């Protein structure tokens, strides 16, 4: 069988163009060639993230930097905002790092709300908070702007934000938001192969990190800063990812950021319309649906149509596309379709036609 095109919420389909950029001859990571590449990348990443801060490159998946943020920034106690599999896991990871951690748990399908975060932070017990902007397991996008606005009220709290499945698809103005860490793995909305994470830290985050012992080496934010000043990474990076990211940023900026955000909005709407047309409801609380993936309700919540998801997935796969059968405790009672990366109205129409056909064949 030929390649099955990925429409799961990561990794997503990688274009031929990106693969070509990925497969260039190696260079030394301490040589001028690499430094030039790194320096060329910076303004493009800063433009994408609306920041003047240096943007760091970590050779790891997102969890590397998610764990690093805990190890670098939590001194006393961290508040983990939990609304799905990834954000729930971050609480476990915080404890595994030996930190005092408290959950702010909402039911899966609900967003994290600023009022709830405010109430917790008002206790004065926390010096850091973790938030996942786009909870990929439930397809919920939390109101980041409102949550980030709390930073002004609690300037000493580190706001650590996972934008793994939203970065580059949705506007995330880092400086304006005023948050402290924002990170994303490259295999989601960037549509690069997995293996690299892009992240940015505020000045305050760097100052906090400097006061925290036991930051280790590989993920020490101060090492990233020191090396970035020389246009380098602390250790040997995945150089193919840096090539591919350089090329991808050219592609993104040529399309135009606003145009890219709008494209994701339109392609996402197509999936929502598909679901409604076939009698399905969505899993997220109305008004908090993600713009990069759609989590379709299949019995997890009352209402809407229910189908045999594994069979449906198989039928869609036979038609050339891989969709996701639900994650964690909502596996099978939801299913997910990604519109991240290079997908256009034309390519999404192909997928949705295959899904129509598969539904008929059920
Ligand atoms: C995929 C994902 C992660 C984990 O990324 P890895 O690349 O597996 O480390 C974390 N958070 C969110 C929101 C994700 O979508």
From TrEMBL:
Coiled-coil blocks: none
Residue stretches making up the Aminotransferase class V domain: 89-272
UniProt: substrate binding residues: 336
Residues recorded with modification N6-(pyridoxal phosphate)lysine: 188
SUPFAM superfamilies in alphabetical order: PLP-dependent transferases
InterPro entries: Aminotrans_V_dom, Aminotrans_V_PyrdxlP_BS, PyrdxlP-dep_Trfase, PyrdxlP-dep_Trfase_major, PyrdxlP-dep_Trfase_small, SP_NH2Trfase/AEP_transaminase
GO BP terms, alphabetized: glycine biosynthetic process, by transamination of glyoxylate
Domain of life: Bacteria
One Pfam family from the record: Aminotran_5
Cofactor(s) this protein requires: pyridoxal 5'-phosphate
GO molecular function term, any single one: alanine-glyoxylate transaminase activity
Keywords: Aminotransferase, Pyridoxal phosphate, Transferase
Family, as annotated: Belongs to the class-V pyridoxal-phosphate-dependent aminotransferase family.
Protein name as it appears in the record: Alanine--glyoxylate aminotransferase family protein
């Amino acid at each position: 069988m030929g390649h099955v095109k990925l429409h799961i919420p990561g990794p997503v389909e990688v274009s031929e163009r990106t693969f070509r950029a990925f497969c260039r001859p190696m260079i030394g990571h301490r040589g001028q060639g690499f430094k030039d590449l790194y320096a060329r990348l910076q303004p493009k990443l800063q433009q994408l993230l609306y920041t003047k801060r240096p943007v760091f490159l970590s050779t790891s998946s997102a969890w590397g930097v998610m764990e690093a943020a805990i190890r670098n920034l939590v001194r006393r106690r961290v508040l983990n905002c939990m609304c799905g599999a990834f954000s729930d896991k971050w609480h476990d990871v915080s404890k595994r790092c030996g930190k005092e951690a408290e959950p702010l748990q909402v039911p899966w399908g609900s967003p994290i709300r600023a009022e709830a975060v405010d109430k917790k932070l008002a206790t004065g017990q926390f010096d850091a908070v973790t938030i996942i902007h786009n909870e990929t397991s439930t397809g919920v996008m939390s109101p980041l702007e409102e949550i980030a606005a709390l930073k002004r009220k609690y300037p000493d709290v580190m706001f650590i934000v996972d934008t793994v499945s939203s970065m580059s698809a949705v506007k995330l103005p880092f400086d304006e938001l005023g948050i402290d860490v924002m990170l994303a793995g490259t295999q989601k909305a960037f549509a690069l192969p997995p293996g690299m994470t892009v992240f940015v830290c505020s000045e305050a985050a760097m100052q906090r990190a400097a006061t925290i012992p036991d930051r280790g080496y590989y993920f020490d934010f101060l090492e990233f800063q020191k090396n970035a000043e020389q246009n380098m990474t602390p250790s040997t990076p995945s150089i193919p990812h840096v090539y591919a990211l350089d090329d991808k940023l050219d592609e993104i900026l040529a399309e135009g950021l606003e145009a890219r955000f709008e494209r994701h909005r339109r392609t996402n709407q197509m999936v929502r319309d598909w679901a409604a047309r076939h009698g399905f409801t969505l899993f997220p609380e109305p008004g908090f649906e993600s713009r990069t993936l759609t989590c379709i309700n299949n019995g997890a919540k009352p209402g809407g149509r229910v189908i045999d998801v594994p069979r449906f997935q198989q039928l869609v796969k036979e038609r050339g596309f891989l969709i996701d059968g639900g994650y964690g405790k909502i596996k099978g009672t939801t299913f997910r379709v990604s519109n991240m990366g290079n997908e256009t109205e034309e390519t999404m129409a192909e997928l949705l036609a295959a899904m129509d056909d598969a539904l008929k064949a059920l």
